[in-house]
Amino acid sequence: MYDVAIIGSGVTGYAAAMYAARLDLAAVVIGDVDGGTITLTDDVANYPGYIQLTGQELAGKLREHALDYPVTLDTDLVTEVFRSKEDCFYVVTEKKTFLAKSVIIATGMKERELEVPGHNEFRNRGVSYCALCDAPLYKDKVVAVVGGSDSAAKEALLLAKYCQKVYIIYRREKIRPEPINAERIEREPKIEVITKTNVTEIIGDQKVNRLRLDNPYKHSDTLTVDGVFIAIGGIPNSQLAGKMGVLLNEKGEIIIDRASRTNVEGVFAAGDVVDTEFKQAITGVAEGVHAAYQAYRYVNEHDFVFTCQQD
Ligand SMILES: Cc1cc2nc3c(=O)[nH]c(=O)nc-3n(C[C@H](O)[C@H](O)[C@H](O)COP(=O)(O)OP(=O)(O)OC[C@H]3O[C@@H](n4cnc5c(N)ncnc54)[C@H](O)[C@@H]3O)c2cc1C
Fold first, then answer.
1. CB under 8 Å to 277, separation ≥6 — which residues?
2. Which pLDDT tens digit goes with each residue over 167-206?
3. 2-111+234-301 and 119-230 in the same fold
4. Residue 157: beta bridge partners?
5. Among residues 143, 125, 182, 156, which one has the least CA distance to residue 41?
6. Residue 27 CB partners (closer than 8 Å, separation 6+)
């Protein structure tokens, strides 16, 4: 029986685990992808204490810090969480079931797909969701990044190191990266920003070779590219929480209070999966720490009748 089961092995889950262990809680982290979303970037320059490091390095440091304590790490997908009448949580994975007194949900988001004709056909044949993984394949080629966030800008900046030309295509009037990345984009002659435009179709034969646009660019409604990188945000991985009766907002994000508590006693949530506007590694880490502290209070304040049995 664990005091707390932390679902998700991204930065948020690891930070929660480190704090939980320091508070003397028996903690298990269950996650299917080590490190989570931050590992998609090679440039983290806004995590306090580190002037610059890669996402892999940051996730590695947080994992190492958590595992410096007696934390159990299980690499697996959680398929169900339910509560017994004795108030214990059964956290069911594809391989086993963990029993815990409290749960922290730190499951992050999955990428939002660009729902246009050609997307599925050309996925991994010119359609990518990870510049860090695929940029070297596009050396001296022409690519487009779809999206206008800071993440999209960073994807474009990384691609510009390899590609001959990078278009950023964004539906609104102005892209909205952090000012420092906006400046970098302005200074990078290989990047061109096309605003007020949607990609409506991905076209190709063996691989992507054109994008159809809903707003003509240089008098053409198609743009010649060798690849397209999608960076249009994410969809919260909140299905497990929803099934447990945890309240979600209209975007599917878990609603938490300032202490990372959900509406369900004993269930806490943090990171990209929750209803906060600003989603960064440092904000997820901080929410994870709140969640661990609240789990500690919950476990210590409740008189559990721990009659539940591990199968
Ligand atoms: C391209 C890009 C660049 C970025 N750059 C920066 C940056 O420079 N600085 C910054 O602060 N932030 C940056 N961010 C944002 C940052 O990556 C996220 O805010 C942060 O990583 C969220 O961490 P998390 O642990 O909450 O979620 P995630 O990292 O998404 O981790 C959730 C984990 O839970 C796992 N999981 C989900 N469901 C289950 C399940 N059912 N069972 C088991 N495991 C499950 C997932 O596989 C994943 O491993 C960037 C994001 C992107 C996309």
1. none
2. 999 999 999 999 999 999 999 999 999 999 999 999 999 9
3. yes
4. none
5. 156
6. 2, 3, 4, 5, 6, 16, 17, 20, 21, 71, 72, 292
- What pTM does this model have? 0.91
- In the structure, which protein residues have their CB atom closer than 6 angstroms to any atom of ligand 1? 7-13, 30-33, 36-38, 40-41, 44, 46-47, 77-78, 106-109, 151, 154-155, 237, 240, 271-272, 279-282, 284
CATH fold of 119-230 reads: FAD/NAD(P)-binding domain (3.50.50)
**Res 85 pLDDT > 80:** no
Domain boundaries, the chain: 2-111+234-301, 119-230
SS3 246: coil
Select from 3.30.1360.30, 3.50.50.60, 3.40.50.620, 3.20.20.70 the CATH code of 2-111+234-301. 3.50.50.60
Q: How far is the CA of 247 from the centre of ligand 1 (A)?
A: 21
| Mean pLDDT, the chain, integer | 95
Buried b (16+ CB within 10 A) or exposed e, 203-235: bbeeebbbbbbeeeeeeeeebebbbbbbbbebe
The active-site residue, picked from 87, 130, 221, 275, is 130
- Interval 25-43: pLDDT, tens: 999 999 999 999 999 888 8
Residue 133 bears catalytic tag: yes
* Alpha-carbon 83 to chain mean position: 26
Q: How far is it, in rounded angstroms, from Cα 34 to Cα 144?
A: 28
